[in-house]
Structures are given as C-alpha cells and as structure tokens.
Amino acid sequence: MPDDLQDEQVDGLDPDGLERRLEKLVKINSVLMDRVERSMDQQGNAFSLFQTAIGLDAKVRSRTEELTAVLRRLECSNEALVEAKEEAERANLSKTRFLAAASHDLLQPLNAARLSISVLSDMQESDDARRLAGRVDQSLQTIEDLIKTLLDISKLDAGVVTPDYQSFPLDQVLSGLEASFAPLAGAKQLKLEVRRSGLLVNSDPLLLQRVLQNLVSNAVRYTAQGGVVVGARQRGTDCLIDVVDTGCGISESERETMFEEFYRGTAAAKSDHAGLGLGLSIVQRTVQALGHGLEVTSTPGKGSTFRLIVACDGAAPLVAPAQTKAHADLDITHGAAVVVIENDRQVLEATVRLLDNWSCRTLAATRLEDLEPALAAFGRPPDIALVDYNLDEGRTGVDMVRALRERFGPELPAIVVTGDRSHAVAADVTAAQCELLCKPTRPAELRALMTHLLRAASAPAS
Question: For the chain, what is the radius of gyration of the CA atoms?
Fold first, then answer.
C-alpha cells in the first residue's frame, strides 16, 4: 500500500480504532518473533546433533582401528604359535629317530658285554668272583633299562606309537611273561604264579605285553618275600588283568606322583634293587595310547594290585595241550644244533661262547652264505635258528629264517634278536611266525625261550 494512502487511512481512524490496530500489530509481531525463535532453536539442536554424530563417528573409527590392530597382532601370534608347535613336533620326531638309531648302536656292545659276563660268571670258581660278575651284570642291566625306557618314552611323547588292535588269546601274552620272569623270581626265591584266562582280548598284543612286562618287572623287583600273581577274568564286556604282589606297597600320598618320570616311592627307594622310576610312567602313557583303563590299590608293607581293564571278545577257542615226550631231557638245549647269524662279530663271539657253555652244537656266521659248508657237513637239519634282525646288505633276520625254512622245512623254530623296538619290526617278526627277543639279550630269558621252542618242536602232533 502506498505510504500516502496509509497515512490517510491512519489519519481517518478514531483513537479506538488506532488502538485496536496497534494491538493487532503487536500480536502479529509476537507470533512472528516466536516463530523465529523456534526456528533458531531447531537449527541449534540440529547443529548440536550433527556435531555429536561427527564425534561418535570419529570414536568408532578409532576403536575399529585399534580392534583391527589387536586382531592382526593376535593372528601373527597364532601363526607364530603354530610354527613353534610344528617346529617342536619336528624336533621331537628327530629326537625319536636319533634315539632309535643311537639305541641300536649302544645296545650292540651292551649285548656282547652281557653275554660275555654270563659266560665269565659260569667260569668262576670262587663266590667272590661270581658276585663281582653279578654286580657288573646288574650295572649293565641298569644301562639297558635306561636306554629302552628313554626310547619308549620318546616314542610315546612324539605320538608315533599307533596301536594295532586285534583280537587274540590273552594266554599268549601270559605265557611269555611266565617264561621271561620265572628265572628272575626264582633267583629271589619268590613264587611267580601266572594263571591262564582262556579269554580273547581286543588290544595291541605287543603294547599290551610291554605294559604287563613293566608291571610284573616292578612287582618282582620290589617284592622281598612272598610272590607275584598274574591273573585275568571277565567282567561284562571287559577283561580285568591283575598283577598282585606282596611287596613294599605304595602309600596314599604317593598315588598321584608315582606315574611321574624318575619318581620312586619311599619304600621302593630303600630297596637294593630299586629301578629308575620310569616303568610306571611308560605304563601310564601306553595305557592311555591304547585307551585301556588302569586301577591301583596298595597297602604299604603288604603289597599292591595293578588292574588293567581291556576289552574282552569272549572265550578263546580250546586248544589241546601239547604232549611232551616222556623221555625228554630236563635240559633240552644240551646237544641242540643252533644256527646263529649275527653281523656284529663281538656279539657273535659272545653268543657262541654262551651256547657252547650250554653244550649246544653251534653253527655261526655273519652271513647265511658263509654257513653253507658247515650246514652241508653237519648232515642233518638244525634244531633252532637264532638270528639278528638288522643284517648287512639291507637283509633282515626274517629273510634268513625264510631261507632256512625253505631248505629245512617250515617247522624250524626261530628266534629273531634285535635292538630295534619299533612296532614295524615286531610286526614283521610276528608275521613270519618267529619269536622276538630284544637286545641286550638276557641269557636266562634266551635259554627259557629256546627250551620252550625246542620242547614244542619235539612234541608229537595232536
């Protein structure tokens, strides 16, 4: 509206109309001011929210970067741990291979020494000389046990022991235990009773035998009087194998630590025949590898019972016992013709002296080819073969046994002697239907095994 017209309209209003007009303008102005203030507040809040969002975004970005850095460091640490673990496993396997090779080299001269000491002891006339020879033999036995035990522990720790489960008669293992430990128990005037079970068990026969050998060895070692009983019975689907002794016992406080390496109980440490404290450690590791159960009950001063829990496959087929000749000599090794093949000349000479001392007729050489003239001149088949497993030119004792059996018949009894305690060697010997004897050879164990095989070979077929 033009200013002159507004002025005329204003001039034409009465005072009341002018006052109303002013009030209306004041209201309009108030409304406009309120809208402006609200608009400014909204703009201020939006700006504040915008600033807050920017701040949160910066914090989230910072925390994300920190978390990413931590995850990267953790990933690097995990990679380092995996690499360290693989390196440790490679070192462990390398150690196992080294111990296996070193043990064979160490056991060869040790085997010759033990055989020679046995011959030397038999040649002595005075009690003092025999006692001295016995002490030397005991020291050699300690060295042998240590080497074998270190190798066993190394294999178990490296995880290279893979059980070969099969169903087999438990009495096969029990018979071997009786033949091995009867001379040792007799020397201490202890009664060793091995009760046949007539049961089939599902386990690795070689590893199970090793467990029982350690348990029986401990029982005989730490029993001064009384005896040791080995027996088994079926309970449901399990076979319970008990090794019971009347020895020094194990206190309650020592139950948790008795399976540790080099641990010997208080009572056992006082024994004159205390071991190295490694037998039970091997037992526990082997039982865990087999997945069997092991329970121990013991009373100090009265004895202990070690119970092995193995899966049972029922009763073994009945086999008629072999009938031995009524006129069989008490010492069947006397005059027996023994083929000996051993590539270590010291061991060969010591073995020949030992067999000659038992009045055997020995045909010995480092190679089978070198025995051909002696075998041809002998005029009859040998009674038994005693061969080393690791021979020259990559050949094995099992190869020699096969060659001898092709010539003299499949019934020729054979013992394969080796310092290699691996499962593969044991399986090869077992598959060839030979008996396995680990070096260093114990003369009493060798003679007992030879007697058993010669008697079985001379028994009439059923």
Answer: 43
73-102 burial, b at 16+ Cβ within 10 Å, e below that, comes to: eeeeeeeeeeeeeeeeeeebeeebeebbee
CA torsion 157→159→160→164, rounded to 10°? 120
pLDDT computed for residue 289 by the predictor: 86
Please tell me the distance from the alpha carbon of residue 210 to that of residue 205, in angstroms, as a whole number. Answer: 9
Give the mean pLDDT of the chain.
78
Q: For 194-202, what is the mean pLDDT?
A: 92
Angle at 283 between CA 206 and CA 438, to 5 degrees: 40
Q: What is the pLDDT averaged over residues 27-55?
A: 62
What CA–CA distance (Å, rounded) separates 122 from 350?
13
Burial (0-12, 13-18, 19+ Cβ within 10 Å), 226? middle
Higher pLDDT, 120 or 299: 299
What is the arrangement of strands in the sheet containing 384-388, beginning at the earlier edge strand? 361-365, 337-341, 384-388, 414-418, 435-438
Classify domain 161-315 at the CATH superfamily level.
Histidine kinase-like ATPase, C-terminal domain (3.30.565.10)
CATH level 3 topology of 337-458: Rossmann fold (3.40.50)
Q: Is 336 exposed, middle or buried (0-12, 13-18, 19+ CB in 10 A)?
A: buried
Q: How many CB atoms lie within 10 A of CB 215?
A: 25
Residue 290 burial (C-beta neighbours within 10 Å; 0-12, 13-18, 19+): buried
What SS3 state is found at 157? helix
**In the chain, where are the structural domains located?**
161-315, 337-458
In percent, how much of the chain has pLDDT > 90? 24
Q: Give the integer Cα–Cα distance in Å for 106 and 127.
A: 30
Residue pair 300/249 in contact (Cβ under 8 Å)? The answer is yes
Burial class (CB within 10 angstroms; exposed 0-12, middle 13-18, buried 19+) of 153: middle
Count other C-beta atoms under 10 Å from residue 440's C-beta.
Answer: 24
The reply to whether 161-315 and 337-458 are identical in fold is no
What are the tens digits of pLDDT across the range 316-362? 776 544 443 333 444 677 889 999 999 888 888 888 888 988 889 99
Q: Give the distance, in angstroms, between the CA of residue 202 and the centroid of all CA atoms in the same chain.
A: 18
